[in-house]
Specification:
- This protein is mostly helical.
- The protein contains 16 helices and three strands.
- A three-stranded antiparallel β-sheet has the order 1-2-3.
- A hairpin with a 4-residue loop joins strand 1 and strand 2.
Length: about 325
């Protein structure tokens, strides 16, 4: 007997009367979101995206009088994918919406709310492999030089956060951190003795990343400007209200530093992360080590950087191989 025919128990906070009025599809989506939050440790950004995607799916299903998951069939899913495509969203957004729905369907299968997989035999568009944007080493040096505290104060003596911004930039480039990972850092996550940073990545997975001397020096200079004493449990980076700097705050600061360095093209937090990985590979770091430092689950995700370094590889080959060039 499939659970679709069972009586679902009301979640905490719902009375039996209010619970009875909630459509089955809504309840199952709520249970699914609770599952990926509590059991799979999905990030808040992923949770928000899944919730939005499934809310859109639920609204579309309602228009088709589909209020029960057993009514979801292959024909309806094909129509829904076509509906999303007609909205002219990007390929990345399209694939994310399909992924959200596919995860929900897999949950229904696992929990035995449905018997057959409606995604079977449906061709899903492939993810477009884009080469990530990155800065050259000279561009990264330019970004760093323009944001050194002395340089910033010379241009704007009233600005009070140059040490923080510079330390933020240094640790992002030194460790290849995501902006959310930078935001979550506490003072105690930086080991100034051994030279490692403890970062909490996607799925609440912890990893240790080496950090360079320049970044450590910038962090020491920044922490010296903080109200003392600074304890291990305090947020590493603070905003102007002396609370934890949010990941959107990190993004804003990176854009501001890029403007200060007079970059014409967009530079964001992920650009710096891509630059970190690219420069490591160009200087001979192996792919597995880069994967570990970036916190990628699959090596395939990291392999995109090998395309970027092909030009550098050709230069090394031409320089090193005795018969790479015609002597004529």
């Amino acid at each position: 007997m499939w659970r679709n025919h069972e009586v679902l128990q009301p979640p905490r906070g719902y009375s039996n009367s209010s619970f009875a009025k909630i459509p089955l599809m809504n309840l199952l989506i709520e249970k699914f979101l609770l599952h990926i939050k509590s059991q799979l440790n999905f990030s808040k950004h992923t949770l928000m995206a899944y919730k939005s995607d499934l809310k859109e799916f639920m609204a579309h299903a309602k228009k088709s009088d589909i209020d029960n998951p057993i009514k979801i069939d292959r024909l309806f899913l094909r129509g829904y994918i076509g509906f999303i495509q007609d909205k002219k969203c990007s390929r990345a957004t399209l694939l994310r919406k399909i992924s959200s729905l596919r995860s929900f369907i897999n949950y229904l299968l696992t929990e035995q709310h449905i018997e057959n997989d409606p995604f079977a035999l449906i061709n899903i568009p492939r993810k477009e492999k884009r080469l990530p944007h990155f800065l050259t080493e000279k561009e990264m040096e330019k970004l760093t030089n323009y944001n050194k505290p002395d340089e910033v104060y010379e241009q704007n003596a009233d600005y009070k956060f140059a040490e923080r911004d510079f330390a933020l930039l240094e640790i992002m480039y030194s460790c290849g951190l995501r902006r959310s990972e930078v935001s979550f850092l506490n003072v105690g996550d930086v080991d100034f003795i051994s030279g490692f940073v403890r970062a909490m990545g996607k799925g609440s997975k912890e990893r240790m990343i080496p950090i360079g001397d320049n970044a450590l020096m910038a962090l020491r200079n920044y922490l010296a400007t903080r109200h003392q004493p600074v304890t291990a449990g305090m947020p590493l980076f603070l905003n102007n209200k002396h609370t934890r700097l949010s990941d959107s705050g990190v993004a804003l600061l990176v854009k501001r530093m890029a403007r200060r360095a007079r970059f014409a093209r967009p530079v964001n937090a992920h650009t710096i992360r891509h630059s970190f990985a690219t420069h490591l590979l160009e200087h001979g770091c192996d792919l597995r080590s880069v994967q570990e430092m970036l916190g990628h689950k699959n090596l395939e995700t990291t392999q995109i950087y090998t395309h970027i370094t092909l030009n550098q590889l050709k230069k090394v080959y031409d320089k090193a191989h005795p018969r790479a060039k015609d002597d004529k």
